[in-house]
From TrEMBL:
The lineage of its organism: Bacteria, Bacillati, Bacillota, Bacilli, Bacillales. InterPro entries: NUDIX_hydrolase-like_dom_sf, NUDIX_hydrolase_CS, NUDIX_hydrolase_dom. This is NUDIX hydrolase. PANTHER family: NUDIX HYDROLASE DOMAIN-CONTAINING PROTEIN, UDP/ADP-SUGAR PYROPHOSPHATASE. The keyword Transmembrane helix does not apply. CDD domains: NUDIX_ADPRase_Nudt5_UGPPase_Nudt14 (cd03424). Gene3D superfamilies: Nucleoside Triphosphate Pyrophosphohydrolase. It holds the Pfam family NUDIX. Its cofactor is Mg(2+). Keywords: Hydrolase. GO terms for biological process: nucleoside phosphate metabolic process; ribose phosphate metabolic process. Residues 40-170 form the Nudix hydrolase domain. One of its GO terms (cellular component) is cytosol. It comes from Psychrobacillus vulpis. One of its GO terms (molecular function) is hydrolase activity.
Length: 180
């Protein structure tokens, strides 16, 4: 199997949030796609943060594109040359005030949508999280912190109370890890 060839590439627009790129591609059979659009986004990090009392630290916030509120795990993107591990610890502290004295456990790195997006999500498990700070939110962030018993998560997922894909997948990845 052969890969596609990029014949031409230009930006439709660039923003601090992400870029939209228009490529002209040649397929392995010689067919040309004149306008293949690629969303360039930064990688992001997220984590299941579990307290000593086996509660998962969740954040609830309004998501404009979906026009609804969502219960999610803490997440964000690295700043500057920040390592993924440092980024998730910072995001957890800023969004929730929680920290941990334990090193985050990498659960996996996964491309979000490799057909049209360049980014991946890097998922961690943080054990023994505890509240040590007040939230340090950006001016555009309005976040409520919720603690949910780990035993309630599957019910909340099956009833749709938690319906954000990266939260659901991170939970199931951590569940497999926590069995050991």
């Amino acid at each position: 199997m052969n890969s596609w060839k990029t014949l031409n590439s230009s930006y439709v627009f660039k923003t601090p949030f992400g870029n939209l790129r228009k490529d002209e591609c040649e397929l392995p059979n010689g067919q040309i796609i004149k306008s293949y659009y690629v969303n360039e986004y930064a990688d992001w990090v997220n984590a299941i943060a579990l307290t000593k009392d086996k509660e998962i630290v969740l954040v609830k916030q309004y998501r404009y594109a979906a026009q609804d509120f969502f219960l999610e795990i803490p997440a964000g993107k690295p700043e500057g040359n920040e390592e993924y591990e440092d980024a998730i610890l910072r995001e957890l502290r800023e969004e929730t005030g929680y920290i941990s004295d334990q090193k985050p456990i990498l659960l996996g790195e996964f491309y979000v949508n490799p057909a049209t997006q360049t980014n991946k999500v890097v998922t961690f498990l943080i054990l023994d999280a505890y509240k040590a700070y007040d939230q340090e939110l950006d001016p555009t962030e309005f976040i409520d912190v919720h603690l949910v018993d780990i035993k309630e998560m599957e019910t909340m997922i099956s009833t749709g109370e938690i319906n954000q894909l990266f939260t659901v997948s991170a939970y199931y990845m951590s569940k497999s890890f926590l069995k050991d």
